[in-house]
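Before relying on records like the one below, remember that each one covers exactly one chain. Contacts with other chains, cofactors or solvent are not represented anywhere in the record.
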Amino acid sequence: MVSNPKIPILRKVFDEKTLFNIFTIKNWIQGIKDEKLRYFFLTALLSVVDNVAYAKKGGGFLRLTPDKEIADIKDVIFTKVNEMVIDIDIDHRNIENNVDSNVFWGDARKICFSEEAFDAIITSPPPILIDMITRGYIF
């Protein structure tokens, strides 16, 4: 049985159903034995949490947005996982077509490359989670 943590900020940022579903999904992910697969799903979850929160990052702080329309986390994460699978498929097709692409895992602040080295950079976690995580590692 999943129980929602008694962390006050979470109760302000998420409704009960969404919070329950986030932790249900998180617990399911933690049970995945394959580390790469577990991190894949955890990345998906972390990347969508800000879409289902009654908050947004503003001015370096977490701003509550109680009137924000919130989607169902199950629909949002399902869509995100599908997008990520498509991205992986596209990356494999790029490899077959000799398109050069690389993924670097680590702290971007500690990786040194020339400015011309990248066409795109994707970072995680999303900004809203940085505030939440640094305020007490709630997830």
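The chain has a mean pLDDT of 78.
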